[in-house]
Each structure stands twice: as structure tokens, then as C-alpha cells.
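Dissemination and training. As part of the outreach component of the grant, students in the summer workshop were shown how a complex can be specified as a set of sequence lines and then modelled as a single object. The example used during the hands-on session is reproduced here so that future cohorts can follow it. Participants entered these lines:
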Amino acid sequence: MGSPGLRLALDPGNKNHPMKNQESVLIDSASDFHKVTAQPRTSIEVQNVTVSFPTPKGTFTAVKDINLTIRKGEIVSLIGHSGCGKSTLMGTISGMAQPTGGQVVANGKKVTGPGPDRGIVFQNYSLLPWLSVYRNIYEAVDSVMKDKTRAEKREHVEQNLKMVNLYAHKDKLPGQLSGGMKQRVAIARAFAINPSILLLDEPFGALDALTKSAMHVELLKLWNLDHREKTIVMVTHDIEEAIFLSDRVVVMSDGPAATIREIVDVPLERPRNKKEIVHHPAYMEIHDRLLSLLIDKYSIEDYKD
Amino acid sequence: MQTIKFMLRGVLYFSGGMLLLLGVWAAIAWLNRNPEATELADKYPLPTPLMTFDVLKEIFTQPFQDDPDVKGIGVKLWGSLLRVLVGFGLGSLVAVPLGLLLGSSRVLMNLVNPVVQILRPVSPLAWYPLGLAVFSATNHGGEGLLNPSSKAAIFMIFICSLWPTLINTAFGVASIPQDHKNVGRAFGFSLWKYLTRILLPYCLPHIITGLKLSIGVAWMVIVAGEMLSGGAGLGFFVWEEGFNAGKVTHIIVAIFIIGIVGFVLDKIFSLLQKAFSY
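and obtained this result:
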């Protein structure tokens, strides 16, 4: 079971309650074990999160009263129209933005800022253009893994570079790389600090369809290599991408004051195969459901009224 | 092969431009001639290129002569350069850190910006008497570079080389893209890491642009400053040995030297700019 901090955060007051303590004493070890498997560990808890910004025209509320619980090792996509506040919501999880109401609990701790337990892949790669591929990752590793020696850090960076097949390009500057390669560096950087939560903000939005497809498989490969223990939250506006990667797809309503419109489960077996999955009846059903949630006009015929 | 061709073309264009300049100059000198005069110097109030070349050769026979009463042109050039480098160096030492601070803090920027905006348009020459008055009053009997008038000239260079570096550095810091800052925040960079891996690398091209503008202004101002301050320098050479001695050729030679040195200084900073842009 999780750390005491985690329990406390999930259910404040739980530990101090005398009844609860007695109960836990009474439970035999077998049923306790059963309880663990039945209730997988929570990775992220978004609790009544509201984000508003002051603007010259008054307060603008981007997202309102969002509640979302994400389990450890789960892949969840946030999908919605442009400007619906998916990136804002993501920002409150990463700690890059502060909610004006409610709170986010990640790994049992209230999020007050970015932390090494959450690796972020930014929308536009955000590599430092004056540092080589290697150095871009090294600086992040150096910041986070303070107790490792120089040689250990170097080896760790090189290992992560090999994982995304960029070892041969390690001395290049980001400007010399293609979009897909840059994104692989950004992903390698986020993986390299070994976070338990990976946050991807429209990571493949700027890539062409073929590269994008390859990157999906690559991301799942990395997740697999890590025994599917990392929780991944991804912002996207690509329905196919969301289904292929996710366990659940969170559909946001249109902003301002966006909320969760619906959460669609994706009960497709893993490992998934890009080519085969699209013919799966469940896939088609989910695809249809998401399409109807996101789009209300499907043909020029619909514009006739 | 391609680069050689490219360089050759550059040399050809440069020579062409120079020839054009000499041609226009010779034409004006000839149109401006005084046919009745007997002395060559009187015949051409604006000396011809050839006359100037003769004087140039003469001036450069002993460029590094350094006697108490006779100083070679090289010594004078070095005097001017030294004043510029000291003033510019001190100015940059103040302007770069201050610019970094101003760029990072909106409060400081708002506080200091009005001061900069008021002092920046002041002609650097206006600072000279102020410097001279203060340094003369506190004169500890320095010589050469350290006498009051030389100190005042350095002070003037110091002031005028502050502004471009200060403004460019502050602008550089203030314009660091949010993306780059986000990297620092997301991966928990320490202040030192943020400064050395994000802030400075991003701002360096801006800082160098500021330095380049500053040294350009400083070099322009030193000539005017030395006309006021005297001493061994190019400005004083133009005024004393050129105008006061009635030798226009000396003025023209000095103009060329000033121009070439300014060009070289600018080129040095252009090379730095190239080396530090990513």
C-alpha cells in the first residue's frame, strides 16, 4: 500500500480516526492483500480545480471545478477543442500553473510547483538551442539526481539517449535535428529524470503523420521497458492518438469555464498494434463516441440549415 | 574554391569602393584649386590624395617615437586606444551586471529606466567638464593616463559606453522566451545553473551587440574628447598638428586612421557576435 502521506492525502483525517485504526487491526492479512489489488494506487488527484486569470476585461475562468483521479501506471489523454483549457489543467498537475481554487495531489503530495516526480514534455520541445542533445539531457539529470557521481550521470544520460536511438546524434545541436528527433530528445529528457508521472502537452502536434505514428509506438515502448509503472497524462486533440495510447480519454467541454464532459474508457488489450487496432469493433465504437462528443457536423450537408 | 572566389569578390568590391572615394576626393580637390597660388599647400586648400599620401609616408616613418616633445603617430593612437579601452572596460563592467539585474526585475527596471532615458541622450562631451572639475579637485598628481584631463576623458568614455550595453543586456534578459525559463523550472535548475545554462547563453548575443555599439560610440567620442583634453592622442593630433598648425593633410591622415581603427574594432565585435550566436 502507499505511503502514509498518500493515504492522508486521499482521505484526510483517515489516520487519526480511532474506528479506522481498529478496523485495520481486525483485517487479516489475506483480505488486506486483496484490498491492495482491488484498489490500485492513486497517482494523481485533481480536486475541484478551478483556474482563472485576471484580464483587463475581468476574470477569465479557463477550467472550473475539475475532479479527476488517475491511477498509477495509467495512460490518460485530455482531449478537447483548442482553448478548452486542457493545457491549463495540465499545468496545474505539472505545477507550472497554480489553481485558483481546489488542489492537485500528485504521489500523495499537494502540488505547489514543478517537481522531479513529474517529468514534463513541452508542446514545442523546449530544448535549449545552445546545448548539444547530450547536454540538454545531462543538465536536467544533473539538476535532479544530485547524489549521483559525474560518471553515473553520464552513463545514465547515454543510456537514455540509446533508448530513443539518438546516441549517434548526441553532439548535435537541436537546430540540426528534425522535429521528430527533437521530440525524442524532449521525451528522453523527461524519462531520464525517472519521474513516476510523465506529463506530455500536445507532444506530437507539430509532427507529420508518419513520424507521429512512429513516436506513439516509441513512447509505449519506453513505458513498457519501465514495466508500465509510469503514469502518463497527455494533452492532445488527435482522437486516434488518444485511443491508441490511452486507458482513458478525458473529453473536455469547450471553454471558458471548461469542465470534464465525459471520460471514455479504452478497454483495448495491450500491447496494441497500430494496424490491427483500427479494425477492432471496440476501437470503432470508441472512435465514434469521441467523434460525436467533439464534433457536431460531419459533412457539408450538415451546414445546409 | 567557393570561399576563395567569395573573398576575392569582397576584395574587388572593397578596392572599387576605395577607388571611387579617391576619385571623388581628387575631383573635389581639383575643382577647389586656387590657380594663382605658388605654394602647393595653398594651391589646393583641400589636399589631393597624392599630397596626403606623401604626408602619410612621412608620419609613418617613425610611428613609435616616444620622446617628451615628439610623439609618433603610433604612440598617439595607442594613447587614444588605451583611454577608450579603459573607459569602455569600466563601463562594461558596470553595464553588463546592471543590465542583467534590470532585465530580471521589473521593479528595478521601472525605477532605473527614467534615469537612463534622461541621461542617455546627453552628449558625452557634456560629461567631460564635470569629470575634469571633479578630478582636478581631487588630483593626486597622476601622470599620463592618470592626469585629471585624461581621467576626465576616460570618465566620458565610461559614461557613453554604458547606455548601449545596459539597454541591450536588459532587453536580452527581459526577452528570454518562456519556453527556456520553463525548462529551468520544470527540471528544478539551481540559480547558478539557470544563470549559466539559460540566461547567459541566451543573452550573450544581445550583450555583445551592446558592447559593439558601445565601443563604436566610445571611439567616436574619444576624438572629440581629446580635442578638449589634449595629451597624446588622435583627437589632439587632429586639432593641434592639423588645424592649429594649418596642415590639412594631417587632418585627413588622422581621419583615415580613425576610420580604419573604428572599422577594425567593429569587426572584432562582429566576429565575437558570430562566435557566440547559436
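Chain A touches chain B at residues 94, 96, 113-116, 120, 122, 124, 126-131, 139-140, 142-144, 173, 175, 189, 193 (CB under 8 Å). Students were then asked to discuss how this feature might be tested experimentally.
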